[in-house]
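Lab notebook, page 48
Experiment: co-folding of the full assembly
Goal: obtain a model of how the components sit together before planning crosslinking
Operator: M.T.
Materials (sequences as entered):
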Amino acid sequence: MHLNTEANLNDADAFYAELTDLHRDLQTADSERVNARLILLLANHIGDNRILSEAMAIAKDLDPVQN
Amino acid sequence: MQKTYKNPVYDYVRSPDQDSSGRTHHPVIIVGGGPCGLAAALDFALQGIPTVVLDDNNTVSVGSRAICFAKRTLEIMDRYGAAERMVDKGVTWQLGKVFFQDEQVYEFNLLPEDQHKLPAFINLQQYYFEEYLVDRIAEENSIDLRWLHKVTELETNPEGTHITVETKDGTYQLSCDFLLVADGANSKIRTQLGLESKGQVFQDRFLIADVVMKADFPTERWFWFDPPFHRNQSALLHRQADDVWRIDLQLGWDADPEEEKKEENIRPRLQAMLGEDVEFELEWASVYTFQCRKMDDYIKDRVIFMGDAAHQVSPFGARGANGGVQSVENLAWKVSAILKGEAPLALLETYNTERQHGAAENILNSTRATDFITPKNHISRVFRDETLRLAKDQPFARSLVNSGRLSLPCTYEGSPLNTADSEDFNGGVVPGAVCKDAPIKINGEDAWLMNQLGNRFVAMVDIDANGEVVPNLVTENPDLAWILLSKDANKAQTLARQLSQAAVQAISDPQGLVAQRLALRPGSAYLFRPDQVVCGRWQQPTAADIHAAHRRALGYDL
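Observation: model returned without errors.
Model output:
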């Protein structure tokens, strides 16, 4: 199995709203904690190191940020 | 400081070699009488090779140092005839607790697989481990252990090595075919040969203290991350023999080792950790910086490095002495086979390749534990702390908590000495891995599989349902020791009697655990190296298959 990068969420807009709402009232330090917990939980659910490695490879490929 | 243990003092004894007009030659000389040097001498004795062991001191380890000896090490010690005292004296524990900040986040029970002769590991002070080996060595006439004999000079070339040894009676000269060096992490011989051990020094210091508790304390391993009594650092408590408790306290990089070693500075830290009303006495303490490093090549001509001299790890996961002893047993049978003319010199290089792999795995495990205990940056710390917080209620997170993984022997996957599987095995023990133990019966008596393996090549065949092909396998491979395995003791014994060969042993597997753990079917065979590592296995072997695998494991295909 490979990382699925096709649209897979059953309600993309609702997920995105929930994710941003989760952080809405948080200070950056707490947001970091929440994100860390979320990654750990989801990584365990996925369970396959190869898929996680593929996700990490895409995630770390940062475009230079334009200020 | 030390009250529970008095170091034995071994006498300097003048050797006849010192009165020789010339340079006395020995096949194998071992430098260093620590866990690895002593283990090596015993291994060679069992292979029938005499050794001289030179140590510049006259006692065993001062202070306890290594304390956790894993099952594989105990199996090796059992092969040497030294495990029983260690297991009797050592502390076996199964329960562990992990604390984060002010609370316990979880506890665990290791629950090792039962029906193995030896426990998953014991805690035992290094000085006992060494003392028992010294006592065992005294029973072997072929080992010449010389205390207070110090190697000062050496010269090596592809044919052999010359050394100069210093004693209180002056110096003398020796030569040897192989010089085995186990003179510790700061090996003087390594330096003399201009060789390096390269790797990483962790930017951290740890206080290691052994204390004697006056009151009862449970036999559990307790590990604290960021505890209230020692903010932002870690602490570890576990039990050794004689009610001595080992405490590791992380101090951070800025700590002054000389200051931290003083009893007046140690006491308040330990009191805060153990509780204000706990009475204890300090046995021994030291401040360490941890390193993970190894030599790129453990062999220089006829000089071979072992133990911490060859590869060094941080102590999390107890892979220093355990990994060292595994290197020793990998080396001893190979050097012995070369000296006896049973294997080509090329076999020696596989010590380097196989144990480079072992050291790399130990360093990887040790580094991962160290990185979890001491996060390297802000976001690593966030992940570490949230893993610990989740661990309280979420079982999955407990698998991520890493305060040191249990030392397990590596598998020599892809070793050129292995014969790869040509038939399908569903599980069992793969070529390159150490055999698994299981209970057996020999002549109606309870025994263990591991005790039948080792010191020589052993082939084992499951004779059930396929008895007629077995005689041919055995008679065409007379240079192997053979084990005939059956669920039915009579059947194995009858067949063993029919084969008039000396080294044929009948064992029975009444519980079927050998068959289960090795994934045997009727007719299956395994070939084991002298270090109990599987080098080939077959569902339907031919005599030629086994012969070829034996030759390959001796290095004839290199």
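Interpretation: Chain B touches chain A through twelve residues (CB under 8 Å).
Next step: discuss with group before ordering constructs.
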